[in-house]
């Protein structure tokens, strides 16, 4: 089995505050969607914010290891800092029971709600376009119960995680970003 990429586990209040800010979530998502190094100006232009604001938020994300310097390049005589989203998984520590449990749960709910809203928006948009075009796979939501041993559940998790880890960045020009949310938990009876 291929090894998984590193995981940054957010355990402190400072790390959670830095990560959980909605604008920083948008910045990280935008960087991952682009899939190549960008400047703070690139992010500012895409999100409609001031370059200084983008730079501030990128620096905060660098503090916790979620963004890293890629290279410098001279653009019109200005030394531009190109950054990339770190190739890591992020764990917000939902299994930790401490003073920040409520913040972790809220962050989880917000992240899932945002992914769900984007998914529903995509469904709606694709349905409108599909009436005039041949059917094409554009995503699905699976839900249900699978009867697994703990070992089977861990194996499924690692298969999915390793596959997704191997596809973090585009390898060819015909690859496009696909957003996902993967939940796997032992259901209470």
Quick tags:
189 residues, alpha+beta, Arc Repressor Mutant, subunit A, two-stranded parallel sheet
How does this model look, in words?
This protein is an alpha+beta fold. The chain has one domain: Winged helix-like DNA-binding domain superfamily/Winged helix DNA-binding domain (Arc Repressor Mutant, subunit A). It has helices at residues 13-20, 22-34, 40-47, 51-63, 101-130, 150-165; strands at residues 7-9, 67-75, 78-85, 89-91. Helix 3 (40-47) packs across helix 4. The two termini are 32 Å apart. The relative contact order is 0.14.
Compose a concise summary of this entry.
The protein is α+β, with helices and mostly antiparallel strands. The protein has one domain (7-165): Orthogonal Bundle (Arc Repressor Mutant, subunit A). 47% of the residues lie in helices and 12% in strands.
Mean pLDDT figure: 90
Largest sheet: 2 strands, parallel
CATH topology: Arc Repressor Mutant, subunit A
CATH class: Mainly Alpha
Strand order of the largest sheet: 1-4
- Would you tell me the structural class of the helices and strands? alpha+beta
Strand content: 5-15%
What count of structural domains?
1
**CATH homologous superfamily annotation:** Winged helix-like DNA-binding domain superfamily/Winged helix DNA-binding domain
Measured between the Cα atoms of the first and last residue, the distance is 32 Å
Structure annotation, total helices: 6
Query: Any low-confidence stretches, pLDDT <50, length ≥5?
Result: none
Rg measurement, Å: 19 Å
